[in-house]
Design goal:
Blueprint lengths: L1 E2 L4 E4 L3 E7 L7 E5 L2 E14 L3 E15 L2 E9 L2 E6 L4 E6 L2 H4 L7 E4 L5 H11 L5 E4 L4
Parallel strand pairs: 2-4, 10-11
Antiparallel strand pairs: 1-2, 3-5, 4-5, 5-6, 6-7, 6-8, 8-9
């Protein structure tokens, strides 16, 4: 953590964290995950820093993402979207996301969507280890 008069910076070494911050132009809030920097623009967002990629889910307002120190390729991600920066490809893909599903972990839930091969595992897990309200599952409509 590096909080000064000019900036607020947190380094995420591995794993996942949720942030809800106020926008202060004179003291930007930035999360650094590997070579990816996520700067809050008065927002709530989630950062998952993994071995192969960094995933950012925005639930309120927007963030600015810069990867590998390349400001020219920075991308603005708005509410309801998720950006995934792939380390090997060195590219960021932004797509729409259901924030309730993406942040199910914050509520102690597991969300499985469009994964029929997971149904036996999910049913066993839900039935044996989790309270009844801790999972959401769906299969594709036919």
């Amino acid at each position: 953590m590096d909080f000064t008069d000019k900036r607020r910076t947190i380094r995420l070494l591995h794993g996942q964290a949720f942030f809800q911050v106020a926008h202060l132009t004179e003291r930007p809030f930035t999360v650094v995950a590997g070579t990816t920097s996520v700067t809050a623009l008065s927002t709530a967002f989630d950062v998952r820093y993994g071995n192969d990629d960094t995933e950012v889910t925005v639930t309120e307002n927007a963030v600015q993402i810069e990867s590998d120190g390349d400001r020219a390729s920075s991308v603005r991600v708005k509410q309801g979207a998720q950006a995934i920066y792939d380390y090997a490809r060195k590219e960021t893909v932004v797509s729409p996301v259901d924030g309730l599903v993406a942040l199910a972990w914050r509520r102690g839930q597991i969300a499985v969507d469009n994964a029929p091969h997971m149904l036996p595992f999910s049913t066993a897990l839900v039935g044996s280890r989790l309270p009844p309200s801790s999972a959401a599952m769906s299969t594709p409509s036919e």
